[in-house]
UniProtKB/TrEMBL annotation:
InterPro entries: Bact_solute-bd_prot1, SBP. It comes from the Bacteria. This is Multiple sugar transport system substrate-binding protein. It comes from Microbacterium murale. Residues 1-23 form the signal peptide. The lineage of its organism: Bacteria, Bacillati, Actinomycetota, Actinomycetes, Micrococcales. Pfam families: SBP_bac_1. Keywords: Signal, Sugar transport, Transport.
């Protein structure tokens, strides 16, 4: 049988451990490191065992201090080894070397299968999961699971909604659309009246399209760690094509823009009123505030509404983004590491600091459903109770998604096809067919049997 490179890497590359260690400097104190002596924080209870952790949340030092003060079983030595890709690169180096990883690592939910298939993180279902299971929704747990295995503790998420400009809606007599058909009709009305673009389809946001395809009933991937050689890939079914044809049609009609998001150009357009809506997630107010949105000429104009539905009679709630704490296979004591993973960012003080300062959208139900969070009057939205009206119901109804163990390739390939839709060279349906072909081919090259 053809050996799967993704899995084989976890075995073969360990043999190069000494070489990789030398190439990386051979010092765990450089570039993050996993030694308990390399702590950003101070360990207050020096007689307790120590677990090392990599994480990049902005308020991590406070969170770790809170945990260490309250714990009588374990202390956490925290290091910021970089955000997102920077941390993942260092983790991958440690996986290759077979040493240098922390005991616990912060990972975005859609990256968990990538590291699970390499056996770089462990199933924590037997290390206290049952004790905290009811603190999170089924959808939150599904996002950090691969098959029946639980490979992370959910911390924050991104239930989706539709952010919009009240001034533009009022000027053109628009009410928040409840369906995507209404969204297109409103976009056309604004355009016909000489108004701005209604939204934006950035080629660099394939995760949004994946979420909207899920919302429409698609199931892009079927993958279970119990059968790691097999994967189901369905990227060009009718539901997926409908979504891409819909957005491609909006582009063709000039109703939405095609500017890549998370760029200075896009933010300038948001501030300048170039877009009436922003299809995004609950973390967006924090991102937008940090980018300077809502502080100048566009102050006080923002509101949010539930995400439009494909079928109003059967609403489906989806998610974009979110992170978790995973226990690595290099942890010397996985059970002790799991205690830290389950306990860090789970106390009231840390959760409150996180959501009040727009660091996280909490998935812990003790915070998510707390009256002070539900009823919070969000400053970015001019005091609107956005959690109560939009994001908490979406989070509670979210049922989870299945991610792929080669997510980086999938999103890159999706990005390429969305760019072609945007420049008008292909239709949405053609993009779906090309994406299916590219991802299936890649999966087979990696040794998967595609079902």
């Amino acid at each position: 049988m053809k050996r799967k490179p993704i899995l084989a890497a976890a075995i073969t590359l360990v043999l190069a451990g000494a070489l990789a260690s030398c190439a990386d400097g051979g010092d765990a104190n450089e570039g993050g490191g996993s030694e308990a002596t390399n702590c950003t924080n101070t360990i207050p209870k020096k007689d307790l065992p120590v677990v090392t952790m990599w994480a990049w949340y902005p308020n991590m030092e406070l969170v770790i201090d809170n945990f260490n003060e309250q714990s009588d079983e374990v202390q956490v030595c925290w290091t910021n080894a970089g955000q997102g890709g920077d941390e993942y690169d260092k983790f991958q180096t440690a996986i290759t070397a077979g040493t240098g990883a922390p005991d616990v690592i912060m990972i975005e939910a859609d990256r968990i299968p990538t590291f699970q298939v390499q056996e770089a993180i462990v199933d924590i279902a037997e290390f206290g999961y049952e004790d905290v299971k009811d603190d999170y929704s089924e959808g939150a747990w599904k996002d950090v699971s691969v098959g029946e295995g639980v490979y992370g503790v959910p911390v924050d998420g991104g239930p989706m909604g539709m952010i919009y400009r009240k001034d533009i809606f009022e000027q053109y007599g628009i009410t928040p659309p409840t369906t995507w058909a209404e969204y297109e009709a409103a976009a056309q009305k604004v355009k016909d009246a000489g108004g701005p673009l209604f939204g934006d389809l950035g080629a660099n946001t394939p995760a949004v399209m994946m979420a909207l395809q899920y919302q429409n009933g698609a199931e892009p991937f079927v993958y279970d760690s119990a059968s790691p050689e097999n994967i189901g890939i369905t990227l060009n079914d009718d539901a997926s094509k409908e979504v891409l044809d819909y957005w491609g049609g909006l582009v063709e009609k000039g109703l939405v823009g095609t500017q890549d998001q998370f760029t200075p150009e896009y933010i300038a357009g948001v501030i300048g009123g170039d877009y009436a809506t922003y299809i995004s997630a609950a973390w967006a107010p924090g991102y937008l505030t940090g980018a300077g949105v809502g502080e100048g000429e566009d102050a006080g104009v923002w509101a949010t509404a539930p995400l439009p539905q494909w079928d109003a009679a059967n609403p489906t709630f989806v998610n974009w983004g979110g992170s978790a704490f995973s226990v690595t296979s290099q942890a010397s004591d996985p059970e002790l590491a799991a205690k830290a993973a389950f306990g860090v960012y789970a106390d009231e003080a840390s959760l409150t600091d996180g959501w009040q300062n727009q660091v996280i959208f909490p998935l812990n139900l003790n915070a998510l459903n707390a009256p002070e969070f539900v009823d919070y009057e969000v400053p970015f939205f001019g005091g609107q109770q956005a959690n109560k009206e939009v994001y908490v119901p979406a989070a509670n109804e979210y049922t989870g998604m299945t991610y792929t163990p080669f997510g980086a390739f999938y999103f890159d390939a999706f990005n390429e096809q969305l760019a072609s839709v945007n420049d008008g060279s292909i239709t949405g349906s053609e993009a779906a067919d090309r994406l299916q072909e590219a991802v299936v081919s890649y999966a087979e090259e990696q040794g998967f049997t595609v079902e």
